[in-house]
Amino acid sequence: MDSYDDRGVGSGSTRPGPGPGEDTSPGPGPEPGSSPRGGIAALSLPYQIVAAIALSVIGLIACGQLAMVFLHVAPSNTLTKQHGKAVDDWIYPEFEQNWKLFAPNPLQQNVAVHVRAEIAGTDGRRTTSWMSLSGEDGKAIRGNLLPSHIHQNELRRGWDFYINSHDNENRANGLRGELSERYIRRIAMRRLSEHDYGGTVERIQIRSEVRSIAAPGWSEEKISTKPSYRVLPWWTITPADLPENAKGADK
Hints:
Elements: H1 45-73, H2 78-91, E1 109-121, E2 124-127, E3 131-132, H3 133-141, H4 149-164, H5 175-192, E4 200-212, E5 228-231, E6 235-236, H6 244-250
Antiparallel strand pairs: 1-2, 1-3, 1-4, 4-5, 4-6
Helix pairs in contact: 1-2, 3-4, 4-5
């Protein structure tokens, strides 16, 4: 006979199976198909609170931005009449929208502004060829991840200001027309001062070149893309039209 020790296990025998009332189910563990917690849930409680506050702030800013843009482009209403100043302070200049809700006006033309100058030098008077101010802005913007608002908007807004304050015969409509002329002259002279023409700029002339945008390839619409020009009269330059660095150079 086999001998049993005091624990009831015989030498050379296997461990006896479970008794009738013994639980044989495995201990608690991950359920099949489950994965460890991720995202915010995986963070400790303090970091979860910080993340929740940050997401709430971002959400509030996003909702505020959408509300401000909506009020800016929406037709006049009670809110815009009461809080129009606050909406404009939020929108301009970074978030300006050049269209109105329910009546969008996408651009259908490319408008370029050119300038030429009459130079008085040691060899007499001469007239420069046309220089594209819009083209220079395009070169400064193209490929630039953070283009300047000056290159994007200064000339465009200045020319719109001039067009809206003058008739088709280039006659100014009141004081705003005269102001727009001075604004355009100063923009042109600042750009011209960056080039050496070997003399003094005494007069300048501005023109715009307008080209309609061609219809897409799938459209049967025929659109002429030939340029049309609006040529302004010659303007005599005064000291008030010169940029500050040019004034210093004259002295």
